[in-house]
Amino acid sequence: MYRRTFLQSLAAAPAAVLARPQRAHAALPKAKITRVRIYQPPNLNENFAQSNMIVTVETDAGITGVGEGGKKDTLEQCAGTLIGKNPFRIEAIWQEMYIAWFYPPGREKIHAQGALDLALWDIKGKALGLPLHELLGGAVRNHLECYATGGAPTPAGQRLSLRERARATMEAGYRAFRMGAGDTRTGEVFNTHERVRKVAADCREAREGVGKDGDWCIDFHQRFDYADAVRACKLIEEFEPYFVEDPVRDEHAHQDLPKLRQMTTVPLTHGEEWGQRWDFNRLVENHDIDYIRATLPNVGGVTEMMKIAAICETHAVGIIPHFTGPVSTAALVGCLGTFPGPVIMEYNYGGRPIEHLPECLDFKNGKALMNDRPGLGVTADLSRMKLIGEVTEPGRKNVFYRPDGSLTHW
Questions:
Q1: pLDDT in tens, 180-201
Q2: Residue 222 to residue 116: CA distance in whole angstroms
Protein backbone atom coordinates (compact mmCIF):
# COMPACT_ATOMS: atom_id res chain seq x y z
CA MET A 1 0.00 0.00 0.00
CA TYR A 2 2.84 2.38 0.82
CA ARG A 3 4.56 1.54 -2.51
CA ARG A 4 1.35 2.36 -4.42
CA THR A 5 0.98 5.67 -2.58
CA PHE A 6 4.59 6.58 -3.34
CA LEU A 7 4.20 5.85 -7.08
CA GLN A 8 1.00 7.87 -7.21
CA SER A 9 2.77 10.83 -5.64
CA LEU A 10 5.52 10.65 -8.25
CA ALA A 11 2.95 10.67 -11.06
CA ALA A 12 1.23 13.69 -9.58
CA ALA A 13 4.48 15.67 -9.21
CA PRO A 14 4.66 17.09 -12.79
CA ALA A 15 1.08 18.30 -12.55
CA ALA A 16 1.88 20.00 -9.27
CA VAL A 17 4.82 21.75 -10.86
CA LEU A 18 2.62 22.96 -13.71
CA ALA A 19 0.04 24.22 -11.25
CA ARG A 20 2.58 26.22 -9.25
CA PRO A 21 1.83 29.93 -9.56
CA GLN A 22 4.04 32.00 -11.82
CA ARG A 23 6.53 34.41 -10.26
CA ALA A 24 4.65 37.51 -9.24
CA HIS A 25 5.37 40.69 -11.12
CA ALA A 26 5.61 43.96 -9.21
CA ALA A 27 2.27 45.69 -8.97
CA LEU A 28 3.88 49.12 -9.22
CA PRO A 29 3.71 50.63 -12.72
CA LYS A 30 6.64 52.25 -14.45
CA ALA A 31 6.42 55.93 -13.67
CA LYS A 32 8.35 59.19 -13.63
CA ILE A 33 7.63 62.42 -11.84
CA THR A 34 6.76 65.10 -14.39
CA ARG A 35 5.54 68.09 -12.42
CA VAL A 36 5.17 69.54 -8.94
CA ARG A 37 2.55 72.19 -8.31
CA ILE A 38 2.09 74.42 -5.27
CA TYR A 39 -1.34 75.64 -4.19
CA GLN A 40 -2.39 78.21 -1.63
CA PRO A 41 -5.46 77.01 0.30
CA PRO A 42 -8.30 79.43 1.11
CA ASN A 43 -7.31 79.58 4.79
CA LEU A 44 -3.51 79.73 4.50
CA ASN A 45 -1.76 79.38 7.84
CA GLU A 46 1.10 81.89 7.84
CA ASN A 47 2.79 80.17 10.78
CA PHE A 48 5.78 78.49 9.17
CA ALA A 49 5.75 75.45 11.46
CA GLN A 50 2.06 74.81 10.77
CA SER A 51 1.94 75.57 7.04
CA ASN A 52 -1.06 74.08 5.24
CA MET A 53 0.26 74.87 1.76
CA ILE A 54 -0.83 72.11 -0.64
CA VAL A 55 1.56 70.45 -3.08
CA THR A 56 0.77 67.95 -5.81
CA VAL A 57 3.32 65.60 -7.38
CA GLU A 58 2.28 64.41 -10.85
CA THR A 59 3.53 61.35 -12.73
CA ASP A 60 3.37 60.12 -16.32
CA ALA A 61 1.45 57.09 -15.01
CA GLY A 62 -1.53 59.32 -14.29
CA ILE A 63 -1.18 59.12 -10.52
CA THR A 64 -0.97 62.36 -8.53
CA GLY A 65 0.08 62.57 -4.91
CA VAL A 66 -1.04 65.22 -2.42
CA GLY A 67 1.21 66.68 0.28
CA GLU A 68 1.13 69.63 2.64
CA GLY A 69 3.58 72.06 4.20
CA GLY A 70 6.50 74.34 3.41
CA LYS A 71 6.60 77.70 1.65
CA LYS A 72 6.79 78.51 -2.05
CA ASP A 73 10.55 79.13 -2.20
CA THR A 74 11.61 76.09 -0.18
CA LEU A 75 9.10 73.86 -1.96
CA GLU A 76 10.34 74.94 -5.39
CA GLN A 77 13.96 74.26 -4.52
CA CYS A 78 13.21 70.82 -3.04
CA ALA A 79 10.89 69.91 -5.92
CA GLY A 80 13.73 70.09 -8.42
CA THR A 81 15.10 66.86 -6.96
CA LEU A 82 11.90 65.00 -7.85
CA ILE A 83 11.55 65.77 -11.56
CA GLY A 84 12.35 62.76 -13.73
CA LYS A 85 12.66 60.39 -10.77
CA ASN A 86 10.84 57.13 -10.12
CA PRO A 87 8.27 58.20 -7.48
CA PHE A 88 8.39 54.83 -5.77
CA ARG A 89 12.07 55.15 -4.78
CA ILE A 90 11.07 57.31 -1.85
CA GLU A 91 14.11 56.74 0.34
CA ALA A 92 16.55 57.50 -2.50
CA ILE A 93 14.68 60.71 -3.33
CA TRP A 94 14.63 61.72 0.34
CA GLN A 95 18.37 61.25 0.73
CA GLU A 96 19.23 63.27 -2.39
CA MET A 97 16.76 66.02 -1.57
CA TYR A 98 18.32 66.27 1.89
CA ILE A 99 21.87 66.99 0.65
CA ALA A 100 21.30 68.38 -2.86
CA TRP A 101 22.00 72.01 -1.98
CA PHE A 102 24.81 73.80 -0.23
CA TYR A 103 23.63 73.93 3.38
CA PRO A 104 22.31 70.98 5.36
CA PRO A 105 18.56 71.62 5.61
CA GLY A 106 17.32 73.72 8.50
CA ARG A 107 13.85 73.34 9.91
CA GLU A 108 12.29 75.48 7.20
CA LYS A 109 13.65 73.39 4.34
CA ILE A 110 12.98 70.07 6.06
CA HIS A 111 9.34 71.17 6.41
CA ALA A 112 9.10 71.55 2.62
CA GLN A 113 10.91 68.26 2.09
CA GLY A 114 8.37 66.64 4.38
CA ALA A 115 5.49 68.01 2.30
CA LEU A 116 6.87 66.42 -0.86
CA ASP A 117 7.61 63.17 0.96
CA LEU A 118 3.94 62.97 2.00
CA ALA A 119 2.94 63.25 -1.66
CA LEU A 120 5.30 60.42 -2.65
CA TRP A 121 3.77 58.10 -0.07
CA ASP A 122 0.33 59.14 -1.32
CA ILE A 123 1.36 58.14 -4.86
CA LYS A 124 2.64 54.76 -3.74
CA GLY A 125 -0.49 53.99 -1.77
CA LYS A 126 -2.71 54.96 -4.69
CA ALA A 127 -0.66 52.85 -7.11
CA LEU A 128 -1.03 49.78 -4.90
CA GLY A 129 -4.57 50.56 -3.71
CA LEU A 130 -3.39 50.49 -0.09
CA PRO A 131 -3.70 52.95 2.79
CA LEU A 132 -0.53 54.36 4.33
CA HIS A 133 -0.73 52.16 7.41
CA GLU A 134 -0.70 49.02 5.24
CA LEU A 135 2.41 50.24 3.41
CA LEU A 136 4.10 50.65 6.78
CA GLY A 137 3.35 47.18 8.12
CA GLY A 138 -0.26 47.42 9.21
CA ALA A 139 -2.13 49.16 12.01
CA VAL A 140 -1.79 48.15 15.65
CA ARG A 141 -4.86 50.15 16.76
CA ASN A 142 -8.24 51.18 15.35
CA HIS A 143 -8.04 54.80 16.46
CA LEU A 144 -5.75 57.36 18.02
CA GLU A 145 -6.81 59.20 21.14
CA CYS A 146 -6.83 62.99 20.88
CA TYR A 147 -6.78 66.12 22.92
CA ALA A 148 -7.87 69.55 21.73
CA THR A 149 -5.61 72.56 22.17
CA GLY A 150 -8.11 74.57 24.21
CA GLY A 151 -10.42 71.76 25.19
CA ALA A 152 -13.67 70.75 23.53
CA PRO A 153 -15.38 73.51 21.47
CA THR A 154 -17.44 75.85 23.67
CA PRO A 155 -21.06 76.51 22.60
CA ALA A 156 -21.53 79.95 21.07
CA GLY A 157 -22.27 82.66 23.60
CA GLN A 158 -21.10 80.65 26.61
CA ARG A 159 -18.11 81.41 28.83
CA LEU A 160 -17.07 78.37 30.81
CA SER A 161 -14.69 78.27 33.72
CA LEU A 162 -11.52 76.23 33.41
CA ARG A 163 -13.11 73.51 35.53
CA GLU A 164 -16.20 73.43 33.30
CA ARG A 165 -14.11 73.30 30.11
CA ALA A 166 -12.13 70.40 31.50
CA ARG A 167 -15.29 68.49 32.36
CA ALA A 168 -16.84 69.22 28.92
CA THR A 169 -13.71 67.93 27.19
CA MET A 170 -13.95 64.61 29.01
CA GLU A 171 -17.65 64.35 28.18
CA ALA A 172 -16.87 64.93 24.47
CA GLY A 173 -14.73 61.77 24.42
CA TYR A 174 -11.24 63.28 24.33
CA ARG A 175 -8.48 61.52 26.22
CA ALA A 176 -7.21 64.67 27.90
CA PHE A 177 -7.96 68.32 28.58
CA ARG A 178 -5.13 70.65 27.62
CA MET A 179 -4.38 74.09 29.04
CA GLY A 180 -1.73 76.78 28.82
CA ALA A 181 0.52 77.86 31.69
CA GLY A 182 -0.90 80.94 33.39
CA ASP A 183 -2.06 82.39 30.08
CA THR A 184 -2.32 86.14 29.59
CA ARG A 185 -3.12 88.13 26.48
CA THR A 186 -0.34 88.38 23.91
CA GLY A 187 1.84 91.43 24.47
CA GLU A 188 1.09 91.78 28.15
CA VAL A 189 3.68 91.39 30.91
CA PHE A 190 4.28 87.78 31.91
CA ASN A 191 5.87 87.65 35.36
CA THR A 192 7.18 84.09 35.41
CA HIS A 193 7.80 84.07 39.17
CA GLU A 194 4.23 85.12 39.92
CA ARG A 195 2.69 83.00 37.15
CA VAL A 196 4.02 79.81 38.74
CA ARG A 197 1.49 80.25 41.55
CA LYS A 198 -1.26 80.86 38.98
CA VAL A 199 -0.25 77.63 37.21
CA ALA A 200 -0.62 75.67 40.43
CA ALA A 201 -4.09 77.10 41.08
CA ASP A 202 -5.24 76.38 37.51
CA CYS A 203 -3.93 72.81 37.63
CA ARG A 204 -5.92 72.11 40.79
CA GLU A 205 -9.03 73.33 38.96
CA ALA A 206 -8.25 71.20 35.88
CA ARG A 207 -7.90 68.07 38.01
CA GLU A 208 -11.25 68.79 39.66
CA GLY A 209 -12.81 69.24 36.21
CA VAL A 210 -11.59 66.00 34.64
CA GLY A 211 -12.24 63.99 37.80
CA LYS A 212 -10.09 61.37 39.46
CA ASP A 213 -10.11 59.12 36.38
CA GLY A 214 -9.69 61.84 33.73
CA ASP A 215 -6.50 63.21 32.21
CA TRP A 216 -5.25 66.74 31.73
CA CYS A 217 -2.03 68.23 30.37
CA ILE A 218 -0.33 71.61 30.37
CA ASP A 219 1.88 73.46 27.91
CA PHE A 220 4.54 75.66 29.53
CA HIS A 221 5.30 77.11 26.06
CA GLN A 222 8.98 77.53 27.00
CA ARG A 223 7.91 80.54 29.08
CA PHE A 224 9.84 79.66 32.20
CA ASP A 225 13.52 79.78 32.96
CA TYR A 226 14.88 76.60 34.48
CA ALA A 227 14.39 77.57 38.13
CA ASP A 228 10.75 78.56 37.63
CA ALA A 229 10.14 75.45 35.52
CA VAL A 230 11.34 73.32 38.43
CA ARG A 231 9.10 75.22 40.86
CA ALA A 232 6.06 74.83 38.61
CA CYS A 233 6.58 71.12 37.96
CA LYS A 234 7.01 70.33 41.65
CA LEU A 235 3.95 72.38 42.65
CA ILE A 236 1.64 70.50 40.26
CA GLU A 237 2.87 66.95 40.92
CA GLU A 238 -0.03 66.26 43.29
CA PHE A 239 -2.53 66.94 40.50
CA GLU A 240 -0.99 64.22 38.29
CA PRO A 241 -0.78 65.78 34.82
CA TYR A 242 -0.70 63.47 31.83
CA PHE A 243 2.33 65.47 30.69
CA VAL A 244 4.02 68.85 30.95
CA GLU A 245 4.91 70.18 27.50
CA ASP A 246 7.92 72.34 26.56
CA PRO A 247 8.86 73.11 30.16
CA VAL A 248 12.14 74.88 29.23
CA ARG A 249 13.55 76.91 26.36
CA ASP A 250 14.20 74.87 23.24
CA GLU A 251 17.73 76.26 22.93
CA HIS A 252 18.50 74.87 26.41
CA ALA A 253 16.58 71.61 26.15
CA HIS A 254 19.63 69.37 25.90
CA GLN A 255 21.07 70.94 29.06
CA ASP A 256 17.97 71.57 31.14
CA LEU A 257 15.67 68.61 30.48
CA PRO A 258 18.08 66.00 31.92
CA LYS A 259 18.35 68.08 35.11
CA LEU A 260 14.60 68.68 35.26
CA ARG A 261 13.96 64.96 34.85
CA GLN A 262 15.83 64.39 38.13
CA MET A 263 13.90 67.11 39.96
CA THR A 264 10.27 66.16 39.26
CA THR A 265 7.98 63.17 38.83
CA VAL A 266 5.66 64.74 36.24
CA PRO A 267 5.89 63.22 32.73
CA LEU A 268 7.77 65.53 30.36
CA THR A 269 7.35 66.12 26.65
CA HIS A 270 9.16 68.50 24.35
CA GLY A 271 9.82 69.28 20.73
CA GLU A 272 7.01 70.91 18.77
CA GLU A 273 9.74 73.06 17.20
CA TRP A 274 12.08 70.18 16.46
CA GLY A 275 13.06 69.07 12.99
CA GLN A 276 14.60 65.70 12.24
CA ARG A 277 15.85 63.08 14.70
CA TRP A 278 19.21 64.70 15.47
CA ASP A 279 17.41 67.45 17.36
CA PHE A 280 16.40 65.07 20.11
CA ASN A 281 17.78 61.54 19.75
CA ARG A 282 20.01 61.88 22.84
CA LEU A 283 17.12 63.01 25.01
CA VAL A 284 15.13 59.95 23.92
CA GLU A 285 18.04 57.54 24.31
CA ASN A 286 18.80 58.84 27.80
CA HIS A 287 15.13 58.71 28.86
CA ASP A 288 15.18 62.41 29.72
CA ILE A 289 11.68 62.82 28.26
CA ASP A 290 8.62 60.59 28.34
CA TYR A 291 7.15 61.70 25.01
CA ILE A 292 8.33 63.60 21.94
CA ARG A 293 6.30 66.27 20.14
CA ALA A 294 7.82 65.70 16.69
CA THR A 295 5.25 65.85 13.89
CA LEU A 296 4.53 65.82 10.15
CA PRO A 297 5.67 67.29 7.86
CA ASN A 298 8.10 69.14 10.16
CA VAL A 299 10.47 66.21 10.63
CA GLY A 300 10.87 65.61 6.90
CA GLY A 301 7.83 63.51 6.11
CA VAL A 302 6.72 59.92 6.62
CA THR A 303 10.16 58.58 5.70
CA GLU A 304 11.82 60.35 8.63
CA MET A 305 8.87 59.94 11.00
CA MET A 306 9.11 56.17 10.91
CA LYS A 307 12.82 56.31 11.80
CA ILE A 308 11.93 58.56 14.72
CA ALA A 309 9.21 56.10 15.76
CA ALA A 310 11.79 53.30 15.75
CA ILE A 311 14.05 55.29 18.09
CA CYS A 312 11.10 55.96 20.40
CA GLU A 313 10.00 52.33 20.41
CA THR A 314 13.54 51.23 21.24
CA HIS A 315 13.58 53.44 24.34
CA ALA A 316 9.90 53.16 25.37
CA VAL A 317 9.22 56.84 24.71
CA GLY A 318 5.74 57.82 23.48
CA ILE A 319 4.79 60.21 20.68
CA ILE A 320 2.50 63.23 21.03
CA PRO A 321 2.66 64.98 17.64
CA HIS A 322 1.96 68.68 17.50
CA PHE A 323 -0.93 69.73 15.27
CA THR A 324 -0.13 70.97 11.77
CA GLY A 325 -2.33 71.08 8.66
CA PRO A 326 -5.20 68.66 8.05
CA VAL A 327 -3.43 66.61 5.34
CA SER A 328 -0.44 66.14 7.62
CA THR A 329 -2.75 65.17 10.46
CA ALA A 330 -4.37 62.52 8.27
CA ALA A 331 -0.89 61.21 7.41
CA LEU A 332 -0.03 61.10 11.13
CA VAL A 333 -2.95 58.75 11.72
CA GLY A 334 -1.55 56.42 9.03
CA CYS A 335 1.97 56.61 10.48
CA LEU A 336 1.31 56.41 14.16
CA GLY A 337 -1.45 53.86 13.78
CA THR A 338 1.45 51.44 13.19
CA PHE A 339 3.49 52.60 16.20
CA PRO A 340 3.09 50.17 19.13
CA GLY A 341 4.00 52.69 21.82
CA PRO A 342 1.83 55.33 23.53
CA VAL A 343 0.31 57.95 21.20
CA ILE A 344 -2.02 60.86 21.78
CA MET A 345 -2.67 63.43 19.05
CA GLU A 346 -3.30 67.14 19.29
CA TYR A 347 -6.35 67.75 17.11
CA ASN A 348 -8.09 71.08 16.57
CA TYR A 349 -10.55 70.60 13.71
CA GLY A 350 -13.28 69.09 15.85
CA GLY A 351 -14.60 67.05 12.93
CA ARG A 352 -15.74 70.16 11.06
CA PRO A 353 -15.55 70.11 7.21
CA ILE A 354 -12.54 71.67 5.48
CA GLU A 355 -13.40 73.66 2.36
CA HIS A 356 -10.58 72.49 0.05
CA LEU A 357 -10.46 68.90 1.38
CA PRO A 358 -13.79 67.15 0.82
CA GLU A 359 -12.19 63.92 2.07
CA CYS A 360 -9.59 64.01 4.82
CA LEU A 361 -9.28 62.78 8.39
CA ASP A 362 -12.01 60.67 10.00
CA PHE A 363 -12.80 61.91 13.52
CA LYS A 364 -15.50 61.03 16.03
CA ASN A 365 -16.01 61.37 19.79
CA GLY A 366 -12.53 62.71 20.47
CA LYS A 367 -10.75 60.05 18.41
CA ALA A 368 -8.97 60.05 15.04
CA LEU A 369 -10.06 56.90 13.21
CA MET A 370 -8.12 54.61 10.90
CA ASN A 371 -9.51 54.16 7.38
CA ASP A 372 -8.74 52.05 4.30
CA ARG A 373 -8.63 54.77 1.64
CA PRO A 374 -5.49 54.46 -0.50
CA GLY A 375 -2.45 56.61 0.17
CA LEU A 376 -3.03 59.33 2.73
CA GLY A 377 -6.79 58.95 2.31
CA VAL A 378 -7.18 62.58 1.32
CA THR A 379 -9.00 64.18 -1.63
CA ALA A 380 -8.06 67.77 -2.56
CA ASP A 381 -10.39 70.09 -4.47
CA LEU A 382 -7.84 72.09 -6.46
CA SER A 383 -10.53 74.40 -7.83
CA ARG A 384 -10.84 75.92 -4.35
CA MET A 385 -7.15 76.78 -4.18
CA LYS A 386 -4.83 79.24 -5.92
CA LEU A 387 -1.98 77.84 -8.04
CA ILE A 388 1.14 79.82 -7.05
CA GLY A 389 4.07 77.70 -8.25
CA GLU A 390 5.09 74.98 -10.67
CA VAL A 391 8.29 72.97 -11.17
CA THR A 392 8.87 70.87 -14.31
CA GLU A 393 12.68 70.91 -14.67
CA PRO A 394 15.27 69.07 -12.55
CA GLY A 395 17.10 71.15 -9.98
CA ARG A 396 20.75 71.21 -9.03
CA LYS A 397 22.27 67.75 -8.55
CA ASN A 398 25.46 68.22 -6.59
CA VAL A 399 25.97 64.82 -4.97
CA PHE A 400 28.57 62.08 -5.23
CA TYR A 401 28.09 58.33 -5.02
CA ARG A 402 30.27 56.08 -2.92
CA PRO A 403 31.42 52.70 -4.37
CA ASP A 404 28.57 50.98 -2.51
CA GLY A 405 25.97 53.21 -4.21
CA SER A 406 25.20 55.44 -1.22
CA LEU A 407 25.21 59.22 -1.52
CA THR A 408 27.69 61.65 -0.07
CA HIS A 409 28.10 65.43 -0.20
CA TRP A 410 29.82 67.03 -3.16
A1: 998 888 888 888 888 899 999 9
A2: 30
Q: Which CATH number fits domain 33-129+382-409: 3.30.390.10, 3.40.50.880, 3.30.110.10, 3.40.50.300?
A: 3.30.390.10
Contact between 75 and 38 under an 8 Å Cβ cutoff? The reply is yes
Instruction: For 375, list phi and psi in degrees, rounded to 5.
Output: 65, -135
Task: Provide CB contacts within 8 A for 147, sequence distance 6+.
Answer: 169, 174, 175, 176, 177, 178, 217, 344, 345, 346, 347
Q: How many residues does the chain have?
A: 410
Beta bridge partners of 400: 408
The number of angstroms, rounded, from the C-alpha of 399 to the middle of its chain's C-alpha atoms is 29
What separation in angstroms does the CA of 30 have from each of 26, 33, 59, 135? 10, 11, 10, 18
Distance CA 247, CA 258 (A): 12
Total-model pTM = 0.91
